[in-house]
Amino acid sequence: MEIKDRVALVTGGASGIGRAASFELAKRGVKAIAMVDITPDIEIAAEQVNSEVDAKIAIPFQGDVTDEKFREEVFAKMTKEYGMVSICVPAAGITRDSLAVKVDKETKKASIYPIENFKKVVDVNLIAPIYWGMEMIAKIAEDRAQRGQKKWNPDEGVQGTVVFIGSISSQGNKGQVSYASTKAGIEGASATLSKEAIFHGVRCGVIHPGFTDTPMVRAMGEEYIEKHVLPTTQLGRLIRPTEIADAICFMIHNSAVSGGLWADAGWQPSP
Ligand SMILES: NC(=O)c1ccc[n+]([C@@H]2O[C@H](COP(=O)([O-])OP(=O)(O)OC[C@H]3O[C@@H](n4cnc5c(N)ncnc54)[C@H](O)[C@@H]3O)[C@@H](O)[C@H]2O)c1
After folding, report:
1. Best of 9, 10, 11, 15 to mutate for ligand 1, by most ligand atoms within 8 A of CB?
2. 189-217 pLDDT, tens per residue?
3. Ligand 1 pocket check for 42: Cβ under 6 Å
4. Considering only CA atoms, which residue is closest to atom 16 of ligand 1?
5. On the CB side of 97, how many CA atoms lie within 13 Å of its CA?
6. Pocket flag, ligand 1, residue 22 (CB < 6 Å)
């Protein structure tokens, strides 16, 4: 699927992987790209993308990805001003890491992971990306139906692609009971949407990045990274966000790639 001249949408565009994916898509010639993030930094990130390609193609949207009205407004504005969104990379994500069960050394009482944290992580990392992806599929499906098109035919060319962001944590990672659950959940959602959305000519897939050099990972602290992260990767360093962005574009561009892509720098799970 040609990336050039498409209308793209990336959430979590102000930082890390979403920001790098926005730059890469812009460099590969998208006509317009919606950059969505909860922080006001999204304005600066979009300006930087525009100055990189010397064109005003990045449009910043500040808002919460879990807000349905906001999501609908972003799609409506992009469709009206630039045309059908046909690339969606819902990358916004959070962590709320803590052991699932902790025993207090003094009282010997066990506490379990706070349910409000679990629900928050599910809202942002699991439900929101699925709904951003489904919104794009719905817009494409509606447009096709209104033009009298039924089941998609390969001769028409791929109509759109959603690349969800999974994680190596989907395989299980200590301290990440909520995060890992959402990333494993994304696999089931993507596999299901992939079967349904191809009726409308839309592909869906998941990339599972390993530990990538972004603020999310840096927040773990240098010592933790040295001691627990780097020894589990064959590459012996954090992955660059640009490497993940390149892999995302590969998944979009090469329609033979389906299911999941592991971009994990040779990560080996610790016991
Ligand atoms: N960094 C890694 O090692 C790594 C590995 C595997 C998967 N991932 C995934 O990649 C994606 C991007 O992570 P990153 O490492 O670039 O993190 P990051 O913290 O650098 O960027 C995440 C962005 O999402 C935004 N965001 C968070 N909650 C939001 C909300 N409710 N609404 C709108 N925006 C919101 C943040 O403001 C931030 O700009 C996430 O889904 C993450 O789970 C990261």
Report:
1. 15
2. 999 999 999 999 999 999 999 999 999 99
3. no
4. 16
5. 13
6. no
Q: Which of 10, 11, 17, 64 best tests ligand 1's pocket when mutated (most atoms within 8 Å of CB)?
A: 17
Average pLDDT, the chain: 97
Contact criterion met (CB below 8 Å) for 229 and 211: yes
| Domain locations along the chain | 7-263
CATH architecture, range 7-263: 3-Layer(aba) Sandwich (3.40)
**Distance between CA 248 and CA 165 in Å, rounded?**
9
Instruction: State pTM to two decimals.
Output: 0.98
Ligand 1 geometric centre to CA of 92 (Å): 4
Is any ligand 1 atom within 6 A of the Cβ of residue 16?
A: yes
Q: What is the pLDDT of residues 99-124, one digit of tens each?
A: 999 999 999 999 999 999 999 999 99
Q: Is the CB of 65 under 6 A from ligand 1?
A: yes
Does residue 255 have a pLDDT over 90? yes
